[in-house]
Amino acid sequence: MSEPSDALESRLREADTDELHELLREHATELDVPRALQALRNPFLGREGVETISDQGRLLSSYEIKRMIALHPKTPEPLALRFIPALFWRDLLELGLDTRVRPTLRRAADRRLMARLSSLAVGEKVTVARRASPRVLGRLRHDPAPRVVAALLENPRLTEGVLLPLLSSDDAQPPILELVARNRRWGVRHEVRYLLCTNPRTPVQASLPILPLLRKRELETVARSVRLPPPVRKRAKVLLGLDV
Predict the structure, then answer these.
(1) Domain extent listing, the chain
(2) Interhelix angle 190-198/160-167, nearest 10 degrees
């Protein structure tokens, strides 16, 4: 016998594990989207309950149901993987950062998000860059939009391991390199300064203030590099006390 919708929703929201799973088994055919969402929001929902909900095919036309199943920490891995391709980019971002779920699922979400980056607007990529995992940042570091890289530089998950390959790249955009040089967090790091000064694509006005902060052997490398602009090489020689 079915219960009034508000009564069943309330019970699904407030039940403990055993009662919740019993309710789902008993009322599986009566579940609609609002009822299923109450169950999915219940902190006592376990694997059995998630599977009962996902078995009700009529519910899977709801994006919110698919989203909550994919992001639920008790969802079996194969089931979560099934729904990840359908998630919007914001939900992929959240899943990739959720330490409650298995690393396999986080990696799958990151891969799907990276595949979609080219279709996102600059403002959307800025949002991703501010919060994304290092895996996603490794793809975003090559974005040509300074706004995106500026957001990436403020991401607390950014590491030198992700950033340094950009600074040594022959394909790096000069405005991006200058942006890194002037960044208060990253521009003060010695390895960052050295790579900026040895990259021929770094604007001269960004390299010159950094040169006095390099070590002698690093200045010698700069002074000898025929790839670098003459003003940068000349300044390095002056700092070394060499004839110019």
Answers:
(1) 1-76
(2) 20
Q: Answer yes or no: is pLDDT of 87 > 90.
A: yes
CA gap 238, 143 in Å, rounded: 36
What pLDDT is recorded for position 4?
A: 54
Supply the pTM of this predicted model. 0.85
Exposed / middle / buried, residue 1 (Cβ in 10 Å: 0-12, 13-18, 19+)? exposed
What would the two tokens of residue 186 be? Answer: 């990253």
- Could you report the per-residue pLDDT of 182-194, keeping only the tens digit for each? 999 999 999 999 9
Give the model's pLDDT for residue 242.
84
- Nearest C-alpha neighbor of 164 from the set 147, 128, 189: 189
Identify the CA nearest to 124 among candidates 85, 151, 154, 153.
151
Average pLDDT, the chain: 94
DSSP 76-145: -HHHHHHHGGGS-HHHHHHHHH-TTS-HHHHHHHHHHHHHHGGGS-HHHHHHHHHH--HHHHHHHTT-S-
